[in-house]
Amino acid sequence: MEASEEDLVSFIAEKSRNRITDIGKTAELLRKAARDSYRLDKALYEPLSVSIASSFNCIETFKKEIKAIDAAIEREIKGLCPNSFIILQSIDGIGPVFAGGIIAEIGDIATFHSSDALAKYAGLYWKHNDSGDFSGEDTPMSKAGNRYLRYYLGEAANSMRKHNAEYGAYYRKKYNEVPKHQHKRALALTSRKFVRLVYGLLAKNQLYSGVSLDTSIE
């Protein structure tokens, strides 16, 4: 870009209506993109600038909407199960959306007599082995159960394995055990492990401290 640093920052601030937190960093990213891209005809400068500014505005709008939705979820869940909501958010990588979704589908944890019962309710079990593990990559997982709870548990487990060393190592171990369906299998098993953690914390009404509650053989 031929514009000076000051002009570029002013342009971004104007077009984004000062909604971008780090304008300097954004300006540098734009300069890098300009350096790495093909040169355009000058007639395209203005429409391209408008398009970029519009994209920034859309991103900031989406962020605001996401915050509003998160706040609404938090208000509703806090009114129903405040302790459970706090407990689940104490787990690495688990925010209000995942915590709220899990609680909404589980309800009262006392309904389930064990983590196996909770896993079966979510459909996180295998037809020939209900222990939560299996030897082959083609062992089919049950299609029964609460698919919404299964979705939230899977997404939460996927987030946790990115933020928690123990779960990250467990995921990688299961991923490397087979030559195909690696991610699907590893995530399913990590989700099953995560169920044991969720059940243990909610049943004992305690916050996550980083100490595994999973006593099963891995």
Question: How does this model look, in words?
Answer:
This protein has two domains: 5-67; 81-204, no CATH class. Mean pLDDT is 83; it is low at 129-136. The chain is 64% helix and 0% strand. The longest helix has 36 residues, at 45-80. The chain is elongated. Helix 5 packs antiparallel against helix 7. The chain is mostly helical.
Features:
64% helix; mainly alpha; 2 domains; single chain; 218 residues; 0% strand
Give the fraction of residues assigned to helices. 55-70%
**Number of helical elements:** 9
Count of all domains: 2
Mean pLDDT: 83
How many distinct beta strands?
0
Give the oligomer, counting copies of the same chain as homo and different chains as hetero.
Answer: single chain
Taking the sheet with the most strands, its summary is: none
Derived structural class: mainly alpha
Question: Measured on Cα atoms, how large is the radius of gyration?
Answer: 23 Å
Cα(first) to Cα(last) distance is 55 Å
- Beta-strand percentage? under 5%
The low-pLDDT segments are: 129-136
Order of helices and strands: HHHHHHHHH
Write down the overall geometry.
Answer: elongated
How do you describe this structure in short?
It is built from nine helices and no strands. It is mainly α and 218 residues long. It has two domains: 5-67; 81-204, no CATH class.
